Amino acid sequence: MNYIFISPHFPYIFENFAVHLKEKGVNVLGIADESYDSLSPRLKSSLTEYYKVDNLENYEEVLRACGYFTHKYGKIDRVESHNEYWLSLDARIRTDFNVFGYKSCDMDKIQKKSGMKEVFRSCGIPVAKGRVFTSYDDALSLIAELNYPVCIKPNEGVGASDTYKIRNKEELDHFFSIKVSHIEYIMEEFIDGAIVTYDGLADKEGNIVFDCCLKYDRPVIEIAHLDTDMYYYVPRDIEEDLKDYGCQCVKAFDIRERFFHIEFFRKSDDQSLMALELNCRLPGGNTPEMWNYANDFDIYREYANVVVDQHFSSTIERPYFCCYVSRKSFRNYTFTEEQIKDRYSEQIMSIESIPGIFSQIMGDVGFILRTPERAEMDHIISEIWQEN
User: Shortest CA distance to 114 belongs to which of 63, 153, 57?
Assistant: First the structure.
């Protein structure tokens, strides 16, 4: 099997995919704009070959790289980056080289929030009212239907970047003064609720071979705008209505042999679910590592098993809650990182320094901990966040 891995070095945990694919006998063929010498020794040893391009955004360079690999190794069987930023690039290569998986014609429904809404509606899953707007007058007209507050965000975008809660006309005017002119924006009614997700991995036939969920202590837009600490965690159980909606989405979006991360609101007023968006990739940050800690398995190895053998070998028992807890460097915390680690050596799985590009949401430092009981998890979070 010939597997082209786009940008296999970023984030660093993704090199685990290359390691386990190689163990299964796969030719892992890397393409990125990073120098070969800067790759980790572990990644280098897992790649059959690496092709450096000057710029991954330049499709002609990427096309030549894929053509070279095809000439040398034969037909390409898979193309993947596991990275939302490169979804369109992955799809374009699959289209041009007739490779299994999403093609360019599928991108509107899996990258544009307006396209996702149509698929959610086709399943009978509730979504927030709203649509793409084209001008200031159109925005005012839409607000007259939705009422303040509203949420404005790019129709095609990642995370909470460039997302705004608009509470009045003054804030709308400010948005129009700073908005990026070439970006298409969508406006939705503001939903009061907590974000929950349905996550997992589907095999080539679209069967869900692993699933779990994530719960967040507050909306990402609030974390970004208020610069607060945050935590999110992997529960031990999945609520029945969440699993039902999630399974419907996997089928409706025809998700095959790939990870998924589907976001919902759990509404505050009646606790019902409302679909937010689909992400056809792994959840961000170190969430895959949290899956491993929560389940005592190796998701990277299981992905390789699914790709090569169409078999997920681990038994999912969910023995632990696993939680990511952030800290911001400007706060005066009572306990140092080392003190927390010493106090909870059995529960703290890792302490991570977060790169600056992610720190606004994920904090400057992140603790990953696991506990069999929710009360113990909550207690450790309170100690991590305690301030003088």
Answer: 153
